Amino acid sequence: VGIVNSHEMIHYDDVESDMRVLAEDLVFNKNPEATERMLERTNWEKEAAAARKNNQPVPRKPRVIVRKPKKQFAWDEFQERPCLEPPAPCSEYAQKKIPVSYVWTKLSHPSIIAIRSDKLSDPSVKGKAAGWSDMGLEWNQPTDMAPLGFPYFVRGRDSVRAYITQLFSSEITLYDGAMGTMIQNQGKWLDEAAYRGERFADWSCNVKGNNDLLSLSQPAVIKKIYTQYLESGSRLIGTNTFSSTTIAQADYKMESLAYELNYAGARLAREACDAVTATDPSRPRFVVGAIGPTNRTGSISPSVEDPSARNVTFDELVEAYFEQVVGLVDGGADILMVETIFDTLNAKAALFAVGEYLERAEVDIPVFVSGTLVDLSGRTLSGQTTEAFYASIRHAKPMCVGLNCALGAQQMVPFVKRLSACAECFVHVYSNAGLPNAMGGYDDTPADMARYNTAFFENGYLNMVGGCCGSTPPHIAALGETAKNFKPRALLPLRRPKMWLSGLEDLVVDDVYNHLGMPFLNVGERCNIAGSIKFKKLMMAGNYGEAMDIAKKQVVDGANVIDINVDDGMLDGTAAMQKFVKIAVTEPEIAKVPFMLDASKFDIVMAGLKWCQGKPIVNSISLKVGEDLFIQHATLLRKHGAAVVVMAFDENGQAATEEEKIRICKRSYDVLVNKVHFPPEDIIFDPNVLTIGTGMEEHSNYGVDFIKATKTIKEQCPYVKISGGISNLSFGFRGVNLIRESIHSVFLYHAIIESGMDVGIVNSHEMIHYDEVPADLLKLCEDLVFNKNPEATERMLERTNQEKERIENAKKGIFTTAAPKVETWRDKNCTERLSHALINGITEYIDQDTEEARIAAAKPLEVIEGPLMAGMNIVGDRFGSGQMFLPQVIKSARVMKKAVAYLLPYMEKEKREKMIREGKDPDAVDENDTSAFQGTFLIATVKGDVHDIGKNIVAVVLGCNNFKVYDIGVMVPCDKILDEAQRLKVDVIGLSGLITPSLDEMVNVAIEMKKRGMTQPLLIGGATTSKMHTAVKIAPSYTTPQHPVIHVLDASRAVTVVSNLLNQNKEDFVESIMEEYDELREDHYASLENRAFLTLPQAIKNRKVIDFVACPPASKPNHVGVKVVTKSIEEILPYIDWNPFFQTWELRGRYPNRGYPKIFNDEKVGSEAKKLHNDALAMIEDVRNTKALYMKGIVGLFPANTVNTEDVEVYTDETRSKVAAKFCMLRQQAEKEGDSPYFSQADFIAPKDSGIDDYMGMFAVACFGCESEVTRFEAMNDDYSKIMVQALADRFVEAFAEAVHKDIRTDIWGYAPNESLSEDDLLKVKYQGIRPAPGYPSQPDHTEKSTMWELMKVADKTGIELSESLSMMPASSVSALVFAHKESEYFAVGQIAKDQVTSYADRKGMDLGTMERWLNPILNYDR
User: Fold this and answer.
1) For the residues 52-59, what does the mean pLDDT come to?
2) Please, are residues 1195 and 1118 in contact by the beta-carbon 8 Å criterion?
3) N or C terminus: fewer CB in 10 A for the chain?
4) DSSP letters along 882-938, please?
């Protein structure tokens, strides 16, 4: 019964799903925030009702999280079953439990032999104290020494893994107690002299306290302690090797003894174990090689001021631990224990070293791991929780994991409980004998310790127990007496594999739900240079502190994982990745979540991985590098324990269709799981989310293909995850968030709920729940995503226009949903059609529309000043705001020029008739009449430089913005530039250049402008120019507030700069530029003061020294001498690198769509990039048919040797008696950290005095015909095609160079005849040898080209010439030296000191002043 208002009652089934959740939480008190959330919803209901009543927009409903069910697959129906043994490593030896031979003399791996070298010699000295007559390496026993089967064990016959499994499953096994406590208990006799013993009596420093040394100086003491623990019941004995690494022994200057300490510590334990086992063979004893943490940490900075500082690297730890493992195993260890871990990164290095040893030795030795929690917070010193610690090291498949030291048993109980609940392997504890007292001692008696450990036994937490600090043999005996009354811990049941990541805290990805209640992992995207302009600026400025703030905010906002990407051409990616990760791991708010290490180069990923103590994700690898390298990458990641994103690419490119996505992912899965043994649950496939709604039929099914492929991939590849770049899907509808978010919501809902998508880099703040998508829009999205309707794109565009109109009306206070009338642009009036044609670059109707406008206008000029300029103003505004891109602007310019060209005859006729009427001479035309323009601009490529593509682009862009541009060409002398500027009275002057000598010429122009008293601002641009060089070298020669010198990065900046120089904001604009340049100059000169340089002799002493005997030069070339080469366009097409092509056009994709072909998926520039690429392909087809462009070059291969360490002589023939030419090389001088060598190209050629024959190659290649095509397109007023052919000529010659270099390697020289690399691998320089170009970082001196040209007679044989500034002509030319040695590598010379410049000038026979002029950009001093 109830007293109710029946009219207002709602049936339970009619309650909205989100309201039902709120009501149930409130009624059943399920959520402490239930009242607050219901009040929030109540207020919204009131506001929504009021909005509807007043015809206002309804506010957004407060979101209620209702968890959606996770898509289930057949492999999810995993039946838990008892586990009979802990997980084993993936090696055949571990999987099959193949017994170890214990005959270590058979090991032949060079790394093991190298460590043993000279360490086992002279037993009369090294074995004297222990009474050893030899330093044996064979610990196998006769197979019939004991009966077969448990509880007996015979080394060489039985598997340690199998025995320990049965032992730990049948009893709580006793480990030993404290070694340090027992040593301290020896009494006062164990003084400094005793520590030294006879062998180390004269050691140079005090050694007391180096307990590990006692294995060598007092072996009887150590062996007695081992025996006492064994007699107290210990079945496993830890060796006295806690600090026996080169790193820890450095405190005593005993690094060289590391191997011996481990060998002796293990051998003494081996002898003690065997002696006690002989008394009762049914209770065999085992030696556990103890591997301590060292006294340095990989995750913690030793400097308060610098969180990125470290006193040890991962690789140094691995090297030290590897030597320790060799010594322990050689000494007879049965098991290896990485113990007392306070920094998990150190443990990961130790486990990596153990893994490398087991792989190289081809054996199975069980590994135990023991962590240390530093206080009652239950975390390691480096901040990890118990679960995160285990998740970080479980990839190494430890047989037993546990905790030791720091705390007593009472304090450890809650943490051991947590470890026991999550560890798939056996679990141990060896606690201290209580907490230390005021005097540093331990008060727990044996009975106390046994009583406090009982909690572990009663709850079934342990398989092995022992003691740490303060414990003694009586403590161990008491533990044994208590433990024997309890059963050991049962292994956790076998459960469905799940991806288990970790930072300072652990994260089970399969159990994650995002803020929308979806089973989906949100990856934070803002710590990505390509995804965040703010982050990029901070990283480029080295502002890591504020970059950390961005990372923290992502975690606060709900990111489950932080993506870290520092890819940028101007940034040292490896150094930046390392520094960012090193700082991030010290920030608890950031480091608590796992990282996704993201880079286009695998080396950068690895650099970051080596500083992660947790288990991160690596993004990404793929089969596009070829299966062999793919396996190498995946194997290395498995060894480090990382999860991995695998892109759906293979050797043939990107997967687009459902079938290709499935095929490539399944192939990748089979390789990873079956060949690499990669855990399938740690694989994330990215099958490529591609764009829909483009209007292209072939794109319409991309959404369906991804969703279907996701489901099939997960069906065929058990336990994997699926990820994708969601923003790619809808970039055709950019600018209207509701539309985009709705498309994403529908796509994700079906991809997640129906197909099982798991992961994505998304902006969680903008995501819309599926239930929140408006009903009408939901239908449109479903049609579009699932390609249900051939008109889906058109209807969505109509809905987009409605939404745009609604937004505009809302700004005006008008709220309506009426759809606007849809019309085509050809239905508009003539003025609007002309503007549309200009904005969209359409030339098809330009003549007829221009004629229509001319007829309607009073005079032709009105057409230009009216609709044409109105359209160009829109183009300029959109380009400046980033709404239009350079290719579109160039196309707009083409339309404008064609329209003006059409009107020109009419305007000329009108002008002549007017002048005749006024009695003037109609032929007297004032060419300087620029009154109709915003301003005038003169631009030129400076003397000696033939490159003009960038100049041409700037000219077109400024022209599009109504500036009168005077382009006076290339290789223009200073006087001509200034004479023309003064004659034409231009407002601004621009200088362009590509080669480094052009930088000096620009300085010269600035100086001459000052001498002439000129007042025009000077703009500087071109590939070799920079803001820093402009500020330091050029600006001081001319800059004043009236006429500044300004560096312009690219065409998109030119309009803003010139406009600001010619408007009322000039004073403020120039002042800010001058202040910035003042700061740059101060920074530059401060850096010179702070930067140290070696003298040339010092640099030579520290040069790269190649052992040409051990690693000889490449073989003699098949063809010695000079050879002219040609190739057709068809032959070079596969070698084209398209990335610089898009950079020329200032199109840059953002993560995850950087580079070709992923740029086509970019939401901002992808559509335009695709159009541009299609235009390029059409032009390529045209020049292939017309033969307008052609390739020609020359190759030279010569006998060569280095002389006097710095120069390379090439000889006329094999007698090497006559020098044909000498190539002078430059060497690095800027001081480096560590032991890195100071490179010169001369290092890569065998020295003459070595008597070893070597060779050096060179080539020069060019693309001819471009200049004629440029002239042709200029005559057609077609700037777009002119710039296109120049951009393609540059791509052709670079591809030609790539192809020629391959021919050199495989045929002409022939040192790599069997090379088989994909085009992608070629572009990534994965071949043997290098081809540095004169004038570039490895040899930044253009004058070496003259030597090359004279030696090969390049101009005579090919037509490729050099200008006076040594620019190659034609502009699309490439030259290079060719080095073939395996150890040759690219490097940057960087700045050099005057002593080297003086030496270099002398060796080249040039005066110092001339030499300084050529080398000016790299001088570390002002000349």
Assistant:
1) 83
2) no
3) N
4) TSS-HHHHHHHHHHHHHHHHHHHHHHHHHHHHHHHHTT--TT---TT--TTSSEEEE
pLDDT at 1395 over 90: yes
Give the burial class of 1215: count Cβ atoms within 10 A of its Cβ; 0-12 exposed, 13-18 middle, 19 or more buried: exposed
Separation between Cα atoms, residue 367 and residue 376, nearest integer Å: 27
First-last CA distance in the chain: 101
| DSSP secondary structure string for all residues of 1244-1278 | GS-BGGGT--EEEEEEEEEEESHHHHHHHHHHTT-
1241 neighbors 1389 (Cβ within 8 angstroms): no
Q: Which among 947, 1029, 1047, 1301 is annotated as catalytic?
A: 947
For residue 1194, give the 3-state DSSP assignment: strand
Q: How far apart are CA 1342 and CA 1344, in angstroms?
A: 5
Give every CB contact of residue 895 below 8 A, 6+ residues apart in sequence: 837, 838, 841, 842, 843, 846
Asked whether the predicted pLDDT for residue 817 surpasses 50, the reply is no
Q: Helices in 918-996 by DSSP H: which ranges? A: 949-960, 974-984
Structure tokens at 576: 């930046």
Cβ neighbours of residue 1301 under 8 Å, at least 6 residues apart?
A: 1259, 1327, 1331, 1376, 1378
Residue 1331: exposure state from Cβ atoms within 10 A (0-12, 13-18, ≥19): buried
The residue with greater pLDDT, 204 or 955, is: 204
- In three-state secondary structure terms, 1375 is strand
Residues 6+ apart with CB under 8 A from 1062: 934, 935, 987, 988
Cβ–Cβ < 8 Å for 286, 273: yes
Of 1251, 1283, 1279, 1246, which Cα lies nearest the Cα of 1266? 1283
Q: What is the pLDDT of residue 821?
A: 40
Average of per-residue pLDDT across 754-779: 84
Count how many Cα atoms sit within 13 Å of the Cα of residue 1070 in the half-sphere of its side chain: 21
Respond yes or no on whether the N-terminal peptide bond of residue 293 is cis (omega within 30° of 0): no
pLDDT, tens only, 1303-1362: 999 999 999 998 887 766 766 678 899 999 998 888 899 999 999 999 999 999 999 999
Tokens representing 172 are 């709580």
pLDDT tens-digit profile of 206-215? 999 999 999 9
Cis, bond preceding 1152 (omega within 30 deg of 0): yes
Q: Which helix (H) or strand (E) holds 1209?
A: strand 1207-1211
Neighbours of 1296 (CB within 10 A): 28
pLDDT digits (tens, 9 = 90+) for 510-528: 999 887 888 999 898 888 8
Question: Which one is catalytic: 998, 1167, 1372, 1384?
Answer: 998
Inter-residue long-range contacts of 150-154, CB under 8 Å, 24+ positions, other chains counted: 151/282, 151/283, 151/284, 152/281, 152/282, 152/284, 153/284
* 998 is known as an active-site residue: yes
| Radius of gyration for the chain, computed over Cα atoms and rounded to the nearest angstrom | 38
| Closest to 1389 measured CA to CA, from 1336, 1347, 1352, 1333 | 1336
Q: At residue 1266, does pLDDT exceed 80?
A: yes
Alpha-carbon span 700 to 787, nearest angstrom = 6
User: Exactly one of 506, 849, 945, 1254 is catalytic; which is it?
Assistant: 945
Between CA 106 and CA 109, with CA 107 as vertex, the angle to 5 degrees is 145
Residue 1041 to residues 644, 1066, 1082: CA-CA distances in angstroms?
Answer: 55, 9, 19
Query: Around Cβ 649, how many Cβ atoms within 10 Å?
Result: 23
| CA–CA distance, 462 with 467 (Å, rounded to integer) | 13
Q: Rounded CA gap, 577 and 597, in Å?
A: 9
Active site residue 947: yes
C-alpha distances (whole Å) from 420 to each of 373, 408, 427, 847, 1036 are 15, 17, 6, 82, 71
- Residue bearing tokens 């998304």: 762
Q: In angstroms, what CA-CA distances link 188 with 191, 194, 225, 237, 259?
A: 6, 10, 17, 26, 29
